[in-house]
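Regression test case RT-17, inverse folding.

Input:
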């Protein structure tokens, strides 16, 4: 792993799932504890008490709700990780060596995000996904599916998300058909933060939960960070129950370990009538079809050398993604 991976913002939990109880998570192989104080602020620390190394995630909030209490000796740690109370010696004033090790944590797009180290240059803002905020684009409803625990590397999962050639096989009858498997040429261009592919066409028997007939669907894809991508899709007119339907889906991948990831999809849907459960179940079905294939791939880490696996013209976006990861120096979840 390089400093780059540690300096990126990574999704680690659904915001609404983080309540008063501390929650353990794994990020880039590092064990963290998430907790939310009484004022609603989310915190992310190393899941290790500086006293005797017990897991802080086994602890609980202090009575005032402003500190996390270690389960072993009751040491309490407030905002910033400062030790505020040692019950065995209540008059002792703890110093810097008694602090819990903390990391930056923020909330956006329904998720808690963490980065383990500051960037080498100017601080990067949290990923800019205005479409996926609750307030932006009122015509689209925002829903999140997951988490999905996947025994695959984060880059393998993102590459699969960018791939249209598997639709007719992995998602037959849903996103593809064996009678329509050709992937026409499309364009790929670099962006300041990654890649963008446009003019991507796929025939789909059921392009979305609202589809009434098979349709030619136009996709665009954007890689916004090494372990993150967004697609936007628009079926041809007259093939969906909602006129002018278009929708966008972001895939947020937490690289928990080199070969283990946690995945969420953030949906911006042109549907305010279906219950959340119906929209999420559709995504569960689609990802459930992908997961066994992802977990079967060998090697589990994505090979970045372009001669490591065979390619064809339909793989233009995935090969560009591999080149991009190699160029920016990604090492976690890949074979360089």
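Golden output:
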């Amino acid at each position: 792993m390089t400093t780059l991976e540690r300096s990126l913002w990574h999704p680690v939990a659904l915001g609404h799932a983080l309540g008063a109880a501390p929650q353990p998570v794994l990020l880039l192989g590092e064990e963290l504890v998430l907790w939310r104080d009484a004022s609603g602020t989310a915190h992310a620390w190393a899941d290790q008490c500086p006293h005797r190394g017990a897991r802080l995630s086994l602890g609980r909030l202090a009575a005032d709700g402003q500190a996390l209490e270690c389960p072993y000796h009751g040491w309490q740690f407030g905002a910033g990780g400062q030790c505020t109370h040692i019950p065995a010696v209540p008059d002792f004033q703890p110093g810097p060596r008694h602090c819990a090790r903390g990391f930056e944590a923020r909330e956006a797009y329904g998720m808690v995000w963490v980065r383990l180290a500051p960037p080498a240059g100017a601080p990067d803002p949290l990923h800019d996904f205005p479409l996926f905020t609750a307030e932006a684009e009122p015509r689209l409803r925002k829903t999140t599916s997951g988490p999905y625990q996947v025994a695959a590397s984060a880059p393998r999962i993102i590459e699969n998300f960018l791939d249209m050639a598997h639709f007719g096989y992995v998602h037959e009858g849903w996103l593809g058909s064996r009678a329509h498997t050709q992937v026409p040429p499309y364009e790929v261009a670099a962006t300041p933060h990654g890649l963008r592919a446009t003019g991507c066409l796929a025939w789909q028997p059921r392009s979305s939960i609202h589809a009434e007939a098979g349709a030619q669907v136009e996709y665009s894809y954007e890689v916004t960070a090494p372990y993150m991508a967004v697609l936007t899709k628009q079926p041809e007119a007259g093939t969906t129950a909602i006129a002018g339907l278009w929708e966008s889906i972001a895939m947020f991948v937490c690289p928990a370990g080199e070969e283990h990831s946690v995945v969420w999809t953030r949906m911006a849907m042109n549907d305010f009538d279906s219950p959340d459960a119906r929209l999420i179940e559709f995504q569960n079905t689609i990802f459930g079809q992908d997961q066994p294939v992802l977990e079967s791939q060998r090697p589990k880490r994505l090979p970045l050398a372009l001669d490591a696996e065979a390619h064809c013209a339909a793989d233009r976006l995935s090969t560009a993604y591999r080149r991009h990861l190699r160029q920016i120096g990604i090492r976690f979840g890949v074979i360089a």
